[in-house]
Amino acid sequence: MTAPISRVGPRRRTGIVLRVLGVVALGVSAFVHIDIASSRPLVADGQITLMGLFMAQGVVAAIVALWVLVRGDTLAWLAVGAFGLASLAALVLSVYVEIPSIGPFPTIYEPVWYTDKYVAAAAAGAAAIIALVALVRMPRILNASDDGRDPREAGPSR
Prior knowledge:
two-stranded antiparallel ribbon, mainly alpha, 64% helix
């Protein structure tokens, strides 16, 4: 008789929960940015518009979300953390500082907070925090046995 497949140890469950939370945070960010970007042109006069940057950010968020969902490895979590921190920094900076146009990229300055911006900031911050927690717990999650016991505490193998 075989052991039930659905039995997952608490440390594995923690890893799964963190992956789902990370995907939700990035999914919210992707949705908000793609929703905003879909209403206006992505390129105008040979320059990428702010909406083009929003669309790119939404697509990257979706790709990183799928990556962490499928793999959940250290590199994926580093990408989630970097994406969350960069998104939050860019958003906050764009409210308080006028970022000049560089090459084909537009000037970024929008000194107003509104609902979508609050949601995007919360999602980016949550993604960064979730990634940090996942990275701190990563060795324990990866080394956990299926029954939830840490193999380092199990004693000598037979």
